[in-house]
Amino acid sequence: MSRNLQGVLWSMVSVALFSTTAAMAKVAVTEYHVLQILFIRQIVVFLSATPQVIRDFPNSLRTHRPGIHAIRIAGAFVALTAGIWAVAVLPLATAVTLTFAQVFFLALLAAFFLGENVGRHRIAAIGVGFLGVLVAMRPGLDGFIDPYALIPVVGALGAATAGVCIRKLSQTEDTATLLIYQSFFVGLLAGIPLIWLWQTPDMDDLLFMIALGVIATIAQWIGVQALRLGEASIIGNVQYMKLIYASAFGFFFFAEIPDAMTLLGAAIIIASSLYIFHREAVNRARE
Predict the structure, then answer these.
(1) What is the DSSP code string of 95-151?
(2) Which residues cross the membrane (predicted)?
(3) I need a labelling partner for 220 at 20 to 30 A (CA). Which of 41, 83, 242, 247 fits?
């Protein structure tokens, strides 16, 4: 199995976990500020990376690319904040649909800054996948003319920026190093305003937000591994699988049965992803 195919499989798991945290965040944000949810989440990420950082200290904190780290942290802060904010002010379906703009941003940034060969086959697969999203979600005009719709789009740009930086950094630095920098500085950016915004949660809510942080942490570790193995433009295409996971969650936990258009869109998305697998297998055979 090629590195790209391994990366795609890891990314599918990561996307499933991130989809779970998005649904959990939509519940939590009804009671607590976006930055408070993000702050608790980053504490969990920080604690998960601390043991490995301590074992390799001080080498684990050394980096020759502080500028890329800074860009990545800025992108991650925008993406994480916008992601929670978007599900608070938009229907979950609309928010998720608009985040798929990340695929386009990621392919574009990967071509310009990583020198990845984003040829016509990958571009076609990305376009077909997004068409499948539109077919399945059937987003109404209200969802796109709402000024709040800019929030997930800006978040998608931040996520794509962070993804390209991770792809670059993951070739030379440990996952723990990547996560410790992000969790500390993103947590710091989220934590300072909490001097005025903090609302003390009860035990149930605290455990819920910690669980959200644990799932998000596992998703991040797996996501970094995916980008370490596969090219960013290929890994980005897996984001479309969020629709599949969302449909499964709706069916098993909320007794929601997907209609014909949703199933058609899902089929198009799956076909797009399978085409990426096929092209990668063809390219591998030629090497």
Answers:
(1) HHHHHTHHHHHHHHHIIIII-----HHHHHHHHHHHHHHHHHH---HHHHHSGGGHH
(2) 35-54, 66-86, 92-114, 123-141, 147-166, 178-200, 206-227, 234-254, 260-277
(3) 247
SS3 per-residue string spanning 28-52: HCCCCCHHHHHHHHHHHHHHHHHHH
pLDDT level of residue 211 (50, 70, 90 thresholds): very high
Name the nearest CA neighbour of 259 among 136, 141, 139, 143: 136
Side-chain-side CA neighbours of 55 within 13 Å: the count stands at 8
User: What's the rounded Cα separation, in Å, for the pair 262 and 131?
Assistant: 12
Pair of tokens at residue 222 = 């797996």
CA-closest candidate to residue 166, choices 41, 81, 71: 71
Report CA torsion sign: 225, 108, 135, 279: negative
CA distance 80 to 35: 9
Q: How many other CB atoms are there within 10 angstroms of residue 15's CB atom?
A: 22
For 52, how many CA atoms within 13 A lie in the half-sphere containing its CB? 14
**Sheet strands (E) in 221-283:** none
The single residue listed with the structure tokens 């915004």 is 197
Q: What is the pTM of this model?
A: 0.71
Confidence of residue 137 (pLDDT cuts 50, 70, 90): low
